[in-house]
Amino acid sequence: MQEGSVVPATVVTGYACDRQGKVLVYRLNGLRVLFVVVLAFVGLSYANVIDGEYLANNIWPCFHAGNIYGLLCSFIFYIKGKRLPPDQRDVGRRAITVDQVKHKKEEEEDKATKKSSGTKAPSTPSPSSSGGVGSFLMDFYAGLEFNPRLGLFDHKMFLYLVGAVVLECVLVSAAITQYHALGGRLSLGLTTYLLLFSFFVAEYMYHEHVHLYTYDLFAERVGFKLIWGCLCFYPFFYGIGVWPLLARGPDQQDTTAPHAALAALCFFGGWALSRGANNQKYAFKTGPPNAPFLGIAPRVVPGSRILCSGWWGLARHINYLGEILMAIGLALPGGGAGAGWSALLPWLYPLYYVALLFPREREDSRVCELKYGQAWRDYCRAVPYRIIPYLY
Q1: For the chain, what percent of residues have pLDDT higher than 90?
Q2: Beta carbons of 142 and 15 less than 8 angstroms apart
Q3: What confidence score (pLDDT) does residue 323 get?
Q4: How many Cβ atoms sit within 10 Å of the Cβ of residue 108?
Q5: Which among 2, 24, 367 is positioned nearest to 212, based on CA atoms?
Q6: For position 5, what pLDDT does the model report?
Q7: Whole-number Å distance between alpha carbons of 15 and 99
Q8: H/E element, 205
Q9: What's the pLDDT score for residue 123?
């Protein structure tokens, strides 16, 4: 699909580079593929060619199939990575990026200038090569390659696309199931949840080009964590909030309009923080120097490229707060819908983000201090809050 032979694709350059420092080229068509698959799923279900309720009614068998497929693919990529010659393995903490290539070129030019003038140029320490490669468990879990490819077919981007498409089909299947069970209508709670999560998935696919500049693309290898996550965890866990809504009977109280409005407010408030921060950084990295973003002039820590204005002046990872708020917004429609323990299920989703992003912020901070040194410490003094302004 990424080759564009089935669904048209847009060709863009990314932020990550291959092992030789050549910037990777991508063919992006995620949003188009999402629409084609979901429309085909709904159309074939309406025509009774497929059972539109199958995913919702057989979620555990589907989960087990995704689990087995994820494990199998993880072993395949592990074996593939181990068969690579040592000099072709990705052993750094992060993939080579455009910024690193540019900095290295500038450093080499500076050394040449200093040498011609008889002055010894200071050397910059090389990035750490301790990428966690060694033990079977670490290699299998974290992976051995950052961006494995077959021509222009990028396996990592394809995995993210599969996870998003299957997740959306699961949600649509749940909606079809309730539509039939309630005699041709959907509850307000499930409608709210479906609209918010569908926006989340479609918006993610629309901004594929922006995500090429995010953590997942240059800091995550393709191993069990990512493969099993995309093929099993993402599609079958992220939508956990739909099940209490689907289990609600016609005689049970529906989500109220104020409750639905609160969910939407929380979700879109988080979206504004997350998308605004990521798009501001993307515009800063790819746009003309000093070009404002939504009227906000870029300001950096002196002597560095660390952005400290706009969203990045609120907290050092304000985008993480946005992700958590969106997850809370998605938990609200079903968070009080079920009886007993089922009402707690939707809250596992935001708790997952808290457990994921708070430790990641600490790791990001350590990596950035190694990379930027004093400039990062200056940024931490200028922007003291890690994730939540005025609190943390």
Answers
A1: 68
A2: no
A3: 98
A4: 11
A5: 24
A6: 56
A7: 8
A8: helix 188-206
A9: 46
CA atoms within 13 A on the CB side of 110: 11
8: left (phi over 0), alpha (psi -120 to 50) or beta: beta
How is residue 310 annotated by DSSP? Answer: G
Of 330, 366, 34, 29, the residue nearest 190 (C-alpha):
330
| Residue in the block written with tokens 């393709």 | 222
Give the CB-side neighbour count of residue 62, counting CA atoms within 13 A. Answer: 18
Residues 6+ apart with CB under 8 A from 113: 121
Q: How confident is the model at residue 107 (pLDDT cuts 50, 70, 90)?
A: low
Contact between residue 27 and residue 33 where contact means Cβ atoms under 8 Å apart: no
Read off the pLDDT of residues 184-243 as tens digits, 9 standing for 90 and up: 899 999 999 999 999 999 999 999 999 999 888 888 999 999 999 999 999 999 999 999
Cα-based torsion angle of the residue sequence 162, 345, 52, 200 in order, rounded to the nearest 10 degrees: -50
